[in-house]
Amino acid sequence: MDKFVVRGGNPLVGTIRVSGAKNSALPCMAAAILTEDEVTLENIPQVRDIETERKLLASMGAEVELGYGRAQHRTTISCRNLSDPVAKYEIVKTMRASSLVLGPLIARCGMARVAMPGGCAIGGRPIDLHLKGLEKMGAVITQEHGYLEARASRLRGTELFFDKITVTGTEDLLMASVLAEGETVMENCAREPEVSDLAAMLIGMGAKIEGAGTPTIRVQGVEKLHGTRHRINPDRIEAGTFLIAGAITRGDLIVANCNPGHLGAVLEKLREAGATVEILNADSIRVRSDGPLQAADISTQEYPGFPTDMQAQYMALATQAEGVSRITENIFENRFMHVQELARMGANIAVDGRTATVRGRAQLSSAAVMCSDLRASASLVLAALVAEGESILDRVYHMDRGYERIEEKLRGVGAQIRRMGNVFGNG
Ligand code: UD1
Known about the structure:
By secondary structure, this protein is an alpha/beta fold.
């Protein structure tokens, strides 16, 4: 199993480039199921979850080519012959987002068998809202032997209200509705940029969608969709992670190839914490920090609020700020697994229910730590970048699920970080 060895103390200086958003690419790849034509997606990140999704689509009979070049990361998907609309447990257990194929499979094939999901161990993470919506559109859903089976000859447009805001739930039902009969109106939808990215792709395929990016999405179902070429948004969470890396190491970093418009809440907090943040142009942000960082509270919310996927990384920063920061996690239970590991590096953090109280500034010291999930891993890398001595991070496969060659990117701006074990891709 791969490990990262990180020696702390270097300020990060230079330009670091952001890859395409994993959480946009996953639903967009699933959307290829909706047409017999070929679709091409550009700016696909080279991360393990994308490889998992490739395997998932291929296991159903799709032809998926993943090409990673220097300038273009591209995938071409043809779902002409979807012989087996089944998402098998072996694949689904490693990636919860596999449930995203449910809606498009029923819409295209009239049936789907999808194993109950696994994925990051951050709370219960049910998919009841996906199922409730599909049933309201006329699907008959049964559950047996750990699999969900859904059938509908053609889904019917309807009015849907999400009891709770769900990102992949909104995406799944959006994909189900584009080929449904009549109009679907979805209320209390997720407004994340990944939903808008998917909607843009679907519109490119001939879907009729209004309101993506707002709480109410209206879809007029069509008979058929066609192929398209679509470029995936930059990854706002990777960009946010790099911005924190610049601030925490007292560096001077340009985060390039990002969308500053997607990072409002994160930029605001970095400024409140005392970093200098400058939007240089439409796709790059400069972050600097030479004075002391100050404590600032965060409370995770759905977009456009502070993202839960940045909570762990922000906590690493809070350990280096003067004063007390209160970090409240409102989206997931059990998303504080990084706390214990940060504490092993010398952080002073107390958890009470949904709130972690971080007392800074702590002098972190290197330690052997364990990555527990994707964003927790990023938090540990950030802490290791400022810890005294050499830290060893175990189980970096969690990191490889969502960050493209992060050690190479960080090394390019002055970090001392190397991988031990199998190089990603051969394992
Ligand atoms: C997506 C992101 C993930 C991010 C999360 C919140 C992808 C592939 N993943 O996950 O990185 O952390 O949004 O921004 O895009 N819920 C239910 N029933 C459901 C669905 C969700 O109760 O049917 C609950 C969840 O348990 C959670 C909350 O709703 O408490 C939000 O979850 P959701 O937005 O669905 O997260 P994901 O889409 O899985």
